[in-house]
Structures are given as structure tokens and as C-alpha cells.
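Whiteboard transcription, Tuesday session. T.W. wrote the C-alpha cells on the left side:
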């Protein structure tokens, strides 16, 4: 039996729609000896794996982690030494709030070869499926992408800075901090700023709520919006209707 080189490929699985995967990601999945996958990936993608591939769920379900990060790190090293190629399949892009770089840092001293396959991130794909561009002439010249919840469970202080700007603000992992986010924008006199909250974007379960800062909590309650969701704040949200109809035509054309 040939000894395989222990290696890790950190792979972006895209935002949810199984077609939003790259060819390079499919090739990595096909060649994996072991796949460790997270909760936000579309499990259809696992069909690209060979029948001999060991597949392990290491994500969070119903609020509980199947594995702690330290255990995942160790598992990658052990499985690579035992079987060869470990693919770490992560939602969206693995280098955007995905801990992909941390896992690579951990395994390097153990002598594993390390690779990354970037993915289509939810930060732009999820708004795009709702027809929302993150930049548009006369609406936004730039955008911020911020985590709503930092390592110590606080709202990122960058939200305060972003609220002062004219940029589009995209907040991930922010649903539990919605009250605070609304307060921050209200203090900047942005009660009328348009907001979109998109839950499970690009999937069959996609739900969306559109309002202004001062009405968004009511919409969230009415529509029962919850995590995983992306919060987009800024004038680009007003561009939605025009783009959605375009997108829908496009989608119909593709079917
Ligand atoms: C740990 S971050 C991972 C982001 C990922 N690496 C990416 O590039 O999309 C998880 C957060 O991303 C957002 N997210 C990821 N996929 C999403 C989707 N399909 N719909 C809405 N939000 C999503 C949510 O805010 C979720 O809590």
C-alpha cells in the first residue's frame, strides 16, 4: 500500500446553492480521503466525494458544537497522517470569518502540505440573489463587512465606525445583536436607512425582510427571521426591486 502525503485543503463550499461551487472545489472534494464539513455547507456537495471517502460532520447543530475547534485541529492532523488528503469544507469563503487560516497555521508545524480553494462568499452572493448590489454608482462607493459578534460575544466596535460612513454595511452573525445595531445606527440619525435581512440566502429556505432601521425589528418578528442571516444596511437596498426582476428573468432563462 502506497503511503500518501499528509495534506490539508481548506475549501470554500459557497453560500448554500449547490451550484455556487467552483470547479477547483469539486476537484478537491473528489480527491479527498477524508472530508470534515461545517453546518452551513450544502450536503449535496458531498455527493462529489468518492464512496471510500470518510465524511465527518464537525459543525454546530441546534446550538451545539459537534467538535470544539481544538478537536477539529487535532482531527485534521490525525486523519491526514492516517489517510492522506483531508478536505476541510467550509461555508462561503474559508478565509472570511471561516477560521480557514487558523487551521492552516495549526497544521503547518506538523508537516502537512496546505492548500486553499477560495469560495463564493455569502457576503456578496446572498444579497446578490435578492438583487442587492453592495456597491452602485450614486448609492455606495464602498462596503464594510463586519462580524456582529466578536470572540468575546460583544458587538464589534467597527459597527460604530461603519455607521458613521456612507458605505454599505454588511453584518454577519448579527441577529442576536440586532437591538444594539439598530441603536448604533439610530444614534447616527440613520433611522430611515434601508435594511435587508436575508436568512439562509441562495437556498430553498431563503427568507427576506426589508425595512428601514426604525422598522426592521418589527419585520424580523413578523417574518420570524433568525440566524444564519446577513444584515445589509445602506441605500443599495433600495436598488433591490430593479435588480430582482432582472435576476428573476435571468434565473427563468437558465431553467
Ligand atoms: C462563520 S460565518 C461564515 C461566513 C462564510 N465564510 C462566508 O464567506 O460566507 C457564518 C455567518 O455567515 C452568514 N451566512 C453564511 N451563509 C449564509 C446564507 N446562506 N444566508 C445568510 N447568511 C449566511 C451568517 O451571518 C452566518 O451566521
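and on the right, the sequence the group agreed on:
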Amino acid at each position: 500500500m502506497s503511503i500518501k502525503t499528509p495534506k490539508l485543503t481548506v475549501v470554500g463550499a459557497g453560500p448554500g446553492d449547490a451550484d455556487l461551487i467552483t470547479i477547483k472545489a469539486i476537484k478537491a472534494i473528489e480527491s479527498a480521503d477524508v472530508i470534515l464539513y461545517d453546518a452551513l455547507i450544502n450536503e449535496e456537495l458531498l455527493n462529489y466525494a468518492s464512496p471510500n471517502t470518510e465524511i465527518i460532520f464537525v459543525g454546530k447543530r441546534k446550538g451545539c458544537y459537534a467538535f470544539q475547534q481544538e478537536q477539529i485541529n487535532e482531527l485534521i492532523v490525525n486523519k491526514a497522517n492516517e489517510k492522506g488528503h483531508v478536505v476541510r469544507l467550509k461555508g462561503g469563503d474559508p478565509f472570511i470569518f471561516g477560521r480557514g487560516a487558523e487551521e492552516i497555521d495549526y497544521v503547518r508545524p506538523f508537516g502537512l502540505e496546505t492548500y486553499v480553494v477560495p469560495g463564493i462568499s455569502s457576503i456578496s452572493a446572498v444579497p446578490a440573489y435578492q438583487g442587492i448590489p453592495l456597491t452602485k454608482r450614486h448609492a455606495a462607493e464602498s462596503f464594510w463587512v463586519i462580524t456582529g459578534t466578536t470572540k468575546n460575544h460583544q458587538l464589534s466596535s467597527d459597527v460604530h465606525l461603519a455607521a458613521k460612513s456612507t458605505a454599505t454595511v454588511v453584518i454577519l452573525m448579527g441577529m442576536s445583536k440586532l437591538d444594539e445595531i439598530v441603536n448604533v445606527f439610530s444614534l447616527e440619525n440613520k433611522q430611515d436607512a434601508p435594511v435587508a435581512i436575508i436568512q439562509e440566502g441562495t437556498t430553498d429556505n431563503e427568507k427576506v425582510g426589508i425595512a428601514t432601521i426604525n422598522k426592521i425589528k418589527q419585520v424580523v418578528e413578523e417574518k420570524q427571521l433568525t440566524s444564519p442571516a446577513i444584515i445589509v444596511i445602506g441605500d443599495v437596498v433600495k436598488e433591490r426591486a430593479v435588480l430582482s426582476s432582472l435576476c428573476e428573468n435571468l434565473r427563468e432563462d437558465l431553467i
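Someone added at the bottom: Helices lie at 23-30, 69-83, 100-107, 122-129, 158-164, 178-187, 216-223, 240-254.
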